[in-house]
Amino acid sequence: MHLQYGCLFLLAPALCAQTSYPTRFQPSIVADARIAAALRIIEDRQDGLIRDWIRLAEIPASSGGEQARASYVREQLAGMGFSAVRADEVGNVIAERPGIDPTDR
User: 3-state SS of 18-83?
Assistant: First the structure.
């Protein structure tokens, strides 16, 4: 048995015993057509999102050595059209998306 499966086997009872977790999510929120549409978009993109997560996780990034991963994220965000893509003082990548002023008609 591989170690990862052994750990999962040992953790399964604890994970299954947990019937709820602290959340503010209310199932009724999906009655809003905008929320339901957004969730469908996410679901439709699930395979691509998983590929993106795997690609990101495969970039070597030990603690304190995340520069290559951060560079990849900056490139991806810039390629999506985000402006003001930057890293903060500890290396977190931040991209700004201009909002809209609801009072500006």
Answer: CCCCCCCCCHHHHHCHHHHHHHHHHHHCHHHHHHHHHHHHCCCCCCCCCHHHHHHHHHHHHHCCCE
d(CA 92, CA 97): 16
Q: Which residues contact 44 (CB under 8 A, 6 or more apart)?
A: none
Q: What is the overall mean pLDDT for the chain?
A: 79
* pLDDT tens per residue across span 15-50: 455 456 667 777 788 888 998 999 899 999 999 999
CA 44 distance to own-chain centroid: 15
CB 93 within 8 Å of CB 77: yes
* E strands present in 32-82: none
